[in-house]
Every structure is written in structure tokens, then in C-alpha cells.
Amino acid sequence: MKHADIIQTLNLEQKCALLSGETVFTTRALPGKGIPAITLSDGPNGVRKQAGAADHLGLNPSVPATCFPTSSATACSWDEKLGEAVGEALGEEAAAQEVAVLLGPGLNIQRSPLCGRDFEYFSEDPILAGRMAAAYVRGIQKNGVSACPKHFAVNSQELRRMASDSVLDERTLRELYLTGFEIVVKEAKPKTIMTSYNLINGTYANENAHLLQDILRKDWGFDGAVVTDWGGSNDHALGVKNGSTLEMPCPGGDSIRELMKAVQGGKISEADVDARLDEMLELVLSTHAAVEKAPRTFDAAAHHKLARRAAAESIVLLRNEGGILPLKPNEKLAVIGDFAETPRYQGAGSSAVNALQVDTLLDSIKADDSGITFVGYASGFERQGAAGAEKLEEAVALAKKADTVLLCLGLDELRESEGLDRADMKLAENQQRLLAVVAAVNPNVVVLLSAGAPVETPWAGQCRALVYGALGGQAGAGAAADILTGKLCPCGKLSQTWAQGHDDTPAKANFGGEGRNVEYREGLYVGYRYYQTAGVPVAFPFGYGLSYTTFEYSDLKADEKGVTLTVTNTGSCAGAEIVQLYVAKQDAKIFRPAQELKGFAKVFLAPGESRTVSIALDDKAFRYWNVKTDRWEVEGGSYQLRVGASSADIRLTAEVSVKGTDAPDPYEGLDLLHYVSGQIAYVTDAEFEALLGHPIPADVVRIDRNMTLGEMDHGRSPLGWVAQKVLRCRLDSSFAKGTPDLNTVFQYNMPLRALAKMTNGMVSMGMVDGLVWELKGFWLVGILRVVYEFVKNLSLNSQMENRLKNS
Ligand code: BGC
């Protein structure tokens, strides 16, 4: 133990007190023992330090900071160096604002384009997500503060996020949902990691011994602090025993007493508490020292410039018919679309940053010096409104005056938010209508799309160019102008497949449905792994993106350690190419996706320039998780190494022979027809059970601490029915108004126990148990217990706080 000297001076109460937060975003201090408090703040694309009232949903304001592009944007740069630079700037701003732990990056797998938080995550692919996240972590931690990769793990939807149970097989868990975290932990050594809200195969992530002990700590060697998501602790003592260090936000004295009781009653040992405390002290003391040393200012102009570079490298050119882009000097350009004036540059929720400054496309185009003639602006539509005839007429009149129309479309603020999954993948009706009427009078339409996740693009044929600007952060508009006018050559490539329609997406039948269980029936077949194996055509494939120049690939040399090839810029402008390496085994005995990304490299080339590009293959290149031997194995034989400009544009291939580990076939004798073919829409219950290795768990609502407030109508208490109805009405009316109330969404999906975890000690678990009695139909006894426990909690809390203050 690193801090045995301090630990031995603490009594059990003090030890337990240090393992939960004191306020929404700070830990507890014991000044008498030389232990300071530290601040944790969101988040992934900028620091969100709340100086006043604090919340975990991005509702109250925060200290201004640079708003970088969201992770789903920067992932499209496929540029680890850039990720590290952004991370370094984030860490610098955190330290300057006295933030010791930055709660990000998020690297959950984008299982479905409908997940409300896809914008906060990097990719549908674990290698790309893991490497980008590792780059961020390295950058953040260069400042001595801690990054906090999240949400560990299998947390790919917002619906019922605090109470949903992700049901999946061990191989899918390891290969798809954990590999990114494995990369981050092993390669970037984060000082903390945040567990997710959900259960995994019946056990909450935060108390899941398999996840936190077997995998995170033993297999990967993580020795940092595990932090709960806000209110994500279910059984704190079990969490501590199984590897969870810090309970957040501020559960109050009850959580401390719960831990003490668990030690005194033998449920966990004091050594468990000491082990967690040692991790906690290491985190607190090391990051506090770094924060103390750090300057209180940072170069905001330099960070804005970096944010602009990050946005520019992340923009993806999806369509460019007849080379309409870049815009030509002397061209008369009309700018249409509300997003030009009021940009959408980040997502809603806990990641929302109070940006230091925000560029707009309109200003950037007006300030452009490339010779374009700006002929006017029309907003064209209202963000959440219907198609207004007047706005359409104005847009059409303006479009007629221009050579080219730049149409700024996208998803509005309410369509992408933490806490809320998207209902569909569509662009708003009024925006689609606008495109149609504008294109009818001027065919030279360039669409610039602001969105953090894929949308359906049946309308793409109505525009000559489609530029995916993603959610480009505070400097995204300037970056987009640089790409549109040709000052910079687009080089981003998609980190998530754009399906032709939501109906084609692999998780659609098992995403965001009724009940708590989320069945990951599609197994490994997420994103391109599915589309390419099952032969489903897509709108824009994974890894796809156009450029203003062209690249040629030649001279591939390959062995099982990696590939080397020559890439030549054969066009007339300087640009960057993202070279991707996929591995395929066409004669595989153990079923696997048609091909999988195993490496990539980005190369900048002047016109005519050639360079040798090397992409190494690591231990993850050929392995698969064998559920029989319970470890990574390699199927021996011949593998195809495919080098391409996208997952669907393979330019060179080579065969290599790989020595296998001769493990027994884990699926021998099982009927897994649709997993073999990748036609996972037809997976039967029997097949899913065969893959899981056990029956599909029953999905029942139980009246216990984990019943959600939205489920109280399943209880036997009129009080519960009324409370549920009130919440439901508030929710429905906010949806009907088109402004979903995030707070109510959160409360509706919140389990009862979270009342005790998120009310700063006001509610105890004893009170929650009283509520449970009430909901079970013991009306009077239930209420009386709540009242009794309330008084008891109040008095115990004040005694404890006094003791802690004086220690
Ligand atoms: C989110 C986390 C976030 C935390 C603190 C939670 O609701 O899931 O990502 O870091 O709040 O704001």
C-alpha cells in the first residue's frame, strides 16, 4: 500500500467517509489528516465546472471553457496525435480551473444511431474508439490531473439508463464492448475510470466482480480509482468489496454508515476498505498537487485555434457531384438555414460546455477572403417548428439569385441529448421540405449537416454536395468555411456507418424497448460488422470520406506483424489520407464478422508526394474470446489483410499465415446458424440462449429498491400510482410541447434507491425501504417507517458531520 502511513491514523468512520463525495462534484477533505478535497467535473469535450448550483444533467451554468468538437466528431479525424493535443488542452483548462478529475472521455460503443449520447462516444468500432480515447487520456493526464474514461461498460442506450440490464454473451462483451476500455487502461493508464449505471447480466456494473476485479484489475492491471456514475451506486459495500472506490455524487452519512456496518457485520473486510482508500488517497494527493502547481490561466486563443483544427480534420465530405466543392472564387453564394446563424456545435446534458466564444458560419462566410460573393442569408426553417410558407418563399427567392446555395441543416438540440434516445434517424420534415423547394429552383445545393450521429439521407440526391460537419465545437463554423472554400482539403472519415434507414440497423428490435432487459442479440454484429457480413447496403460506409485530391495505394508488403505500403497523392492539392487495415478470415471455423478494423494510419501528402505507411498489428489482430477455455485464443491458418480507403473500398490485400492456439471450438454442437451468416434479424430465442450459454433472463418488475419511479404504477400503493401519474403527465406534456424535460425524464427512469444517493444525505436507504413497504401495500407501516427513518437519519447525520469536521 502506498499510503499505509495515513491510513493507519484513520478510524473506520473516517476511512468510510473518504469513499464518497461531499458535494455534487467534490470529495471529502480531512484537513487534520492532511487530506484535501478534490473537484471532479465533466467532461468529454470541454470543462464544465459548475461554480454555483451543481447538477449532473447540464442544466445549470458552468465556468466558461473551450468547447472542442464532440467525440463522435473527432473520431472522424482518426488522428491520435490530434486527440492527444485536444486532451492536453482539456487537461490544462481543467487544472487551471482547479479541477482534478475530468469526467471523460466517453467511449461506449455506438450500438445504435438512436442512442441519445452517441455524440459523446467515438465509434461503433472498439479499436478506433479505444485508440482515440487513449490519446485523450494521455493528453489530459500530461497535466497531472486525471482523466476518467466512462461509462464502464455496455451502456449504449439512455432509456431506463439507471435500471436497464444489458444481457449479452461473454465473447461479445470482451471483443466489442470491453476492447476499447482495455486499450485505454493498458495503453494510457487513466488514474480513474467511471462505471456505468446499468446492470450487466444481472449485476450492476459498479458492484460487478467479474468486470471490476477479474477483468479491470486482474486482467488489465488497473490500479487507479473506480468512480461511480452520478447516483450509479446500488450497494456501496458490495461495490467497495468488488473494486469500486468512490461513490458520487454526495450520498451523505447513510452511505458511510452502510459501509461501516458492512465491515462491522463481516459482509466486507476492513482490508477491502483500506485497499480502496489507498487508491483514493493516491488519486487525491497526486492530482491535488498537480492542480496546486498549475497556472490559473490558459491560452484561450490557442485553444480556439486547436478546436478549429480539430473540427476541420473531423469534417467528412460525403458527396461532391461534379466537384461542386470547393466553392470557386467569384461564385455568388446564398447561405440558407437556421444553423448558419445559430450553430449547433455540441450535445445536451452533462457534457454541455459554456463555450468561451462561438463562431457562426454566417460570420465566417462573410469574413471569407477567397473571392466568393455572398448574396444573402435566409433562415429557411424554425428549429422545432413546422414548414413555414413565408420562410420557404424567402429561401426560394434568395436561392434564385445565387450560383450556389449553402444549406445548413441538422439535428436540433432536442434530438440529441443525454437521458433521451432519438425516436428516429430522420432530419426534421421542415428541413427536408426546404431542401426540396430550394433544389427545385437551384440545383447547385451544398448541404452542411450539423449532427452528432448518423441521419437517414433519402434526400441526398437533391444536393450536389453533402458535408458532414458533425458537432464541431465552438470553432466548428470557421473550420467548415475553410473546407467549403478550399483553404483546407477535407480528410475526415466516418467513425460510424450511415445506414440507409433505421430499419436496417442491427439493434433495432432490441434497443430502447419495453422492460428492463436489453438483449444484445445481435452479438458481434454491430455497425459495419453487421452490414458487411449480412450484405446489407448502406448509405455511407464506415471509414468513408471524400477528398479534393486523390490517393493511390501500392506496394503492399505484409506479415502477421503488420503491413507496409506506399500511398501517393495523385491529385492537385495537399491533403491527408486515412489508410485502414481490416482483417478477414474467409474460412473461419469460429464464426466472425466478414472483416474487422485492426489498425489505421493518417498520412499528409503534398500533390505528387509518395510516402511509405506502416500499420502494425498487435495482440488484438487475430484473437477471439473462447467461451470454453475462457481466454483469448487464435484460430490458426490463413488470414486476409485488407488495406483500404474505407471498409467498403479495399485497395490492396495480402494473405498471411498465423499460428493458432489450437483451442477447442467453443460452439461445437450448437446451432448458431444466424450468427454464422450474420443474419441476426432472424436469431431465435434458442440461438440467443445457445450464445449466452444460459436461458434468457425473465424480465419482471419487482417492488424493491430498484423499482423506478416510472414503474410505481406496478405497486400496490395509491400514493405510488398518483406520483407515477403526475410524473408521466409532466413527461408527456413536455414531449407534446416539443421540449422534453430532462429532469423529469431522469426522475421517471430513476430507481427508488437513487433518492438516497442523490439528495445530499436527506434521504436514507431506510427511508427508501419504508417507501418500498408503502409500494408493497403496507401503507401505514410504510409511511411510519419513512418518518422514523427520516428523523433518525437527520440526527445521525448531524452527529457524524460534527465528528468528521473535528477530525
Ligand atoms: C453522466 C456522466 C457524468 C455525470 C456527472 C451522469 O449523469 O452519465 O457521464 O459524468 O452525470 O455530471
From the structure above, extract its key features:
4-stranded mixed sheet, single chain, 6-stranded mixed sheet, 807 residues, Immunoglobulin-like, 33% helix, 28 strands, Rossmann fold, globular, 23 helices, binds beta-D-glucopyranose, hydrolase, EC 3.2.1.21, alpha/beta
Topology summary:
Blueprint: H1 4-7, H2 12-17, E1 21-23, E2 26-27, E3 40-41, H3 71-74, H4 80-96, E4 101-102, H5 126-141, E5 146-147, E6 165-167, H6 170-188, E7 192-194, E8 199-200, E9 203-204, H7 209-219, E10 225-227, H8 236-242, H9 253-264, H10 270-293, H11 300-314, E11 316-320, E12 332-336, H12 361-366, E13 373-378, H13 389-400, E14 404-410, H14 429-441, E15 445-450, E16 465-468, H15 476-484, E17 498-499, E18 517-519, H16 528-534, E19 538-540, E20 551-559, E21 562-569, E22 575-584, E23 596-605, E24 610-616, E25 623-626, E26 631-634, E27 637-646, E28 649-658, H17 673-677, H18 685-692, H19 718-736, H20 742-748, H21 753-757, H22 765-776, H23 779-805
Parallel strand pairs: 3-4, 4-5, 6-8, 6-18, 7-10, 12-13, 12-14, 14-15, 15-16
Antiparallel strand pairs: 1-2, 8-9, 11-16, 17-19, 20-21, 21-24, 22-23, 22-27, 25-26, 27-28
Residues 42-43, 56, 103, 150, 229-230, 350 line the site of beta-D-glucopyranose.
Q: What is the helix tally? A: 23
Main sheet characteristics: 6 strands, mixed
The average pLDDT value, as a whole number, equals 96
Largest sheet strand order: 11-16-15-14-12-13
**Helix amount:** 25-40%
Q: How does CATH name the architecture of the domain at 311-519?
A: 3-Layer(aba) Sandwich
* Spans of at least 5 consecutive residues with low confidence: none
Structural class: alpha/beta
Fold-level CATH name of the domain at 311-519: Rossmann fold
- Note the overall shape: globular
Q: Output the radius of gyration.
A: 27 Å
The end-to-end span amounts to: 23 Å
Output the CATH class name of the domain at 311-519. Alpha Beta
Portion in strands? 15-25%
- Tell me the name of the CATH homologous superfamily of the domain at 311-519: Glycoside hydrolase family 3 C-terminal domain
Ligand identities: beta-D-glucopyranose
The beta-strand count equals 28
EC number: 3.2.1.21
Organism: Faecalibacterium prausnitzii
Enzyme class: hydrolase
Domain Fibronectin type III-like: 577-647
